[in-house]
Amino acid sequence: MNSTVLINILRFLALLAVQVVVCNKISLFGFLVPYPYILYILLYPVNGNKAVLLISAFFLGLFIDMYLNTGGPHSVACVVLAYMRPTFFKFSFGVSYEYQTIKINDRLSPERLSFIFICVVLHHLILFLLETFRFSLILDALLHTLYTTIFTLIICVITIYLIKPAKQL
Amino acid sequence: MQQIVNFLFKNSITLLFLLLLGISLTFTIQSHAYHRSQAVSSANAVTGYTSEQINNVEAYFGLREQNEQLAAENAQLKRLLYNTQDSTNRPPVTLPTELGTYKVIQSKVIINSYSKQDNYLTISSGARDGIKPDMGVVSSQGVIGYIENTSAGYATVISVLNSKFRLGAKIKKNNHFGTLTWNGKNTGFAQLVDVPRLATVIKGDTIVTGAESTIFPENIPIGTIEKVYIDKKTNYYTLDIRLFNDMTSLGYIYVIENKDKKEIEQLQQATTNE
Question: Which of B18, B40, B158, B187 is the best residue to mutate to test the A interface, defined by the most A CB atoms within 10 Å of its own CB?
């Protein structure tokens, strides 16, 4: 139990640092910035304390907002994602997900990929809609969501593979 | 009472979620509401300090470029210096008051953003160095933005690439005024709107800051006219301006304080109140 707490704290700090130092400086084609920091919310233990997840997700988003000067959309998106996570688990892994020992950071199966995909789409949709905050630019926000989702998804999958070399293979 | 406690206990996660959602939504809506209203910004000790450390490392990769920019600026200042007329037969110009009105503080951009609709920069000087909200920010090439929030050691800047940015600007040749804004599309171009139809606008003409601004001195370069079209709603010209600054790579900048700003604003307020 203690080691999972420690791992999660380290993951929080590491992903925040990577996002601030590396990912915020990437801007592919001048406007695409990936947000792999949401891996913290995705990789949080399935049966872990939900209140802790919500609060830590809120602060993770708040820190990212501070560094990016965005003013709030990241924390909204993170809190919603943390709250909706069990629903997505149910959708991707079936109703009895709590009894299986799911590990997201394992070999990539269709279930895991669909779970990560839905989470990234939800997060980015909320993020970009709140960031533009204008009805006239809604199409731009949706396009931005689409492109960034692809970029973040690729970075997330690569990160999972790099950090957890497939032992089962 | 028992039931209320039971209800709270059963739905504690949802209630916590709603609370956090409420707080973060408040931050978001506040930040979009009006100028200088951002509650969450990078102008604080923790994010400012770490960003400065990161920037210290990054700055090494742009040293050559910085040197070239400085040399170019020096050359331009030398040109001004060598070409001044003899001081004895110079006509009495308003130079002394101009010199006394503006104060310039040198600083450095530590966070630069340009991929969003509302972009902000963070600079490494704050209230301790005499920086206050609504002071102008320029580089050697031209206008960058104005100060939004300050903390003790850092300040955030509304960049030209922000939908909240507004600046009175004029065409250098014929003094026709317009308002500089950004439509959120291309980081290399800003828009000059509400230029009267009787103005002669030619591609390549220079746009500079106007005299009515209390933030910037007059005649600071902004960019050149790239494209001219007529706004169908208002029947005024809208001009695409190619900015002199490359907003995607900014280093050292100058913050300009107008000492007469308060006086001018008080006077304007007193006049409009009557």
Answer: B40
- The shortest CB-CB distance from A75 to any of B27, B42, B116 is to B27
B143: Cβ–Cβ under 8 A, 6 or more apart, which residues? B136, B137, B160, B167, B209, B216, B220, B221, B222, B245
Query: At B222, is the secondary structure helix, strand, or coil?
Result: strand
A-contacting residues of B 183-242, CB under 8 Å? 184, 187
Residues on chain A touching B110 (C-beta within 8 angstroms): none
Partner residue facing A79 (CB), from B21, B46, B113: B21
Chain A: residue whose CA lies nearest to B249? A25
Strand partners, A28: A32
- Per DSSP, the three-state class of B132 is coil
Locate the domains of chain B by residue range. 45-163+249-259, 167-243
B20, B23, B27: residue with CB nearest A71: B27
End-to-end alpha carbon distance in chain B = 59
pLDDT digits (tens, 9 = 90+) for B186-200: 888 888 888 888 888
Q: How far apart are CA B217 and CA A117, in angstroms?
A: 51
Distance linking the first and last C-alpha atoms of chain A: 27
For chains A and B, CB pairs below 8 A equal 109
Q: Which residue type does B266 have?
A: Q
pLDDT digits (tens, 9 = 90+) for B33-75: 766 666 677 777 788 888 888 888 888 887 888 888 888 888 8
- Domain locations in chain A? 2-163
Handedness of CA A11, A16, A20, A23 (dihedral sign): positive
Contact between B28 and A72 using a beta-carbon 8 Å cutoff: yes
CA distance B43 to B210: 29
Say if the ipTM goes beyond 0.85.
Answer: no
What top-level class would CATH report for the domain A2-163?
mainly alpha
Fold exhibited by the domain B167-243: Thrombin, subunit H (2.40.10)
Pair of tokens at residue B76: 């331009």
Assigned superfamily of B45-163+249-259: Rod shape-determining protein MreC, domain 1 (2.40.10.340)
Give the containing element (helix H, strand E) for B224: strand B221-230
Task: Give CA–CA dist B228/B136, Å, rounded.
Answer: 27
Secondary structure letter of residue B86 according to DSSP: P
